[in-house]
Amino acid sequence: MNNTKFALKDVEKKKIYLMGWVTLLVFPIPAFIALYFTHDFTLREFFDLDRFKFHHLITGGIIGIVYAYLANFAMETKLFKSVPLRVDQLVKSMNLTIGESIFLSICAGVGEELLFRVGVQTYIGPILGGILFVALHGYLNPFNWRQSLYGIIVLPLAFILGYAFEYVGLWFAIAIHFAYDLTLFLSFDKEETEEENVENHKEIGS
User: Which of 182, 178, 184, 181 has its CA nearest to residue 57?
Assistant: First the structure.
């Protein structure tokens, strides 16, 4: 039984890593191809290197962390507890290590921003791009308002990312996205550890 359990965990971990690599390496490809043929983009323009500033990473990181804490606070409210598929429970079920959390945050921050902000947003703008970004994550469902609660939390962040890219630069948006994801990953992991400790104490006490 234990061997089967560990084998299943190994399979899930492989899926997580595959998902991360696909996001990082595959997602940007269609965006670059489209921009190359329609806007004559070079790789330098695609990666927005001319607007890169180190302090943008710091500022973006702070914004991402603050927004993540606000989102986490909102997800602890009674209203959010009624959501059928909760994001925090989904992340907790992944049992991510700190290293895996950093890896997935980098993959999502870089891969998704290149696809959505540099690619999609160039054609449809930050508002529609932000809505599409949240909808494709499955957070907006017009037929299930409870399922859309998380979308309401994330949608302002999507708009922030869109305008951050528009007026400051790609790497500012990447820093916000990375810090947001990583903060939530680590926060959810901490909550899961605390819950496990409580359960262990209960078992010992009984």
Answer: 178
Q: Which residues contact 112 (CB under 8 A, 6 or more apart)?
A: 23, 27, 133, 177
Considering all CA atoms of the chain, what is the largest pairwise distance in Å, rounded to the nearest integer? Answer: 69
Can you state the angle between helices 149-167 and 170-205, rounded to 10 degrees? Answer: 150
- Summarised one tens digit per residue, pLDDT across range 41-100 is 999 999 999 999 999 999 999 999 999 999 988 888 887 777 765 676 777 778 889 999
Please give the Cα distance from 150 to 83 (Å, whole number).
8
pLDDT of residue 37: 98
pLDDT tens, position by position, 118-144: 999 999 999 999 999 999 988 887 877
